[in-house]
Design a protein that fits this description.
The protein is of the alpha+beta class. 23% of the residues lie in helices and 15% in strands. The strands form two sheets. It has a two-stranded antiparallel ribbon with strand order 1-2.
């Protein structure tokens, strides 16, 4: 029966587990309470830039304007 030659560190284990979870679990989507757009949970809204009632990311101006 094969055994691991060296112990795998906690950070290495967590990185491996994060890659697996990122592939298998879809991101949780919510509606933004500020603008009503659909956005990923625990991220700033892509549409308005708000997160938890505060503006985090400024909206980019388009090149045509």
């Amino acid at each position: 029966m094969p055994n691991p030659k060296r112990r795998m560190s906690n950070s290495r284990t967590d990185k491996r587990r994060a890659q697996f979870n990122a592939r298998t679990k879809p991101a949780t989507m919510i509606t933004c309470p500020n603008c009503g757009a659909i956005t990923i949970m625990h991220r700033a809204c892509y549409n308005c830039g708000y997160y938890r009632g505060r503006i985090i990311a400024k909206k980019k101006e388009s090149a045509a304007e």
